[in-house]
Amino acid sequence: MKIAVLSDIHSNIVALEEVLKDAKAQNVDEYIVLGDIITDLPFTDEVIDKIIELTPYVIKGNREAYLLTYENTKEDDKWKTLQAKSVVCYLNYTRQDNIEYMRNLPENLVLEFEGVKIKAVHGSPYDVAELLYFDTPLMDKVFNELEEDILVYGHNHIPANHEVRNGKIVAQVGTLGMHNNGIGKPQYTIITCENGKASLEVRTIDYDKEELKKRIQKRRWVI
Fold this sequence. Notes:
Blueprint: E1 2-6, H1 13-25, E2 30-33, H2 44-54, H3 62-72, H4 82-92, H5 96-103, E3 109-113, E4 116-120, H6 137-145, E5 150-153, E6 161-165, E7 168-172, E8 187-194, E9 197-204, H7 209-218
Parallel strand pairs: 1-2, 4-5, 5-7
Antiparallel strand pairs: 1-8, 3-4, 6-7, 8-9
Helix pairs in contact: 3-4
């Protein structure tokens, strides 16, 4: 069984479409989405709609948490900065049913495929916005406390990579929609599960950035 793990789409609908084409060509059976579906590009509803059709295995990222936090803290001065205003813009241009969808997303999931248990988080097992890197004390803690066979995460926008310790796997699955990852191209990870064993493959693809530019130019949003 093949499971494609996607993270940090950041509303990049064109990159998402290309990744899904690639995943289909790889005969992927299931999908897990690790959050940060939204913001940075003006295709919030299109991306959420596609994800809802794709899979029930979706968790909340820090970007979804930001928008939902705004609902309860609108008067806070932190929302007056230009960066914060851009975040608020996405909430204003998102359908109410998709806002409800984001509100109800869990912060983590534990799933089992073919005898392999996978824990899915966005930042770290302890905080949706916590940055997790290899060769750090935090990673040592994660491995020591990991009960499942595999932990998958995203958030930090580094190239996809994984490490194995004592039979446990921790995998940074890559960033799909934002390419400040040293590679400049979308990445995602396929986990193949069979008879209680798992193997990982990182997929690096490209997409038509001019097509993305054209779609952005047609979208008239005001911050």
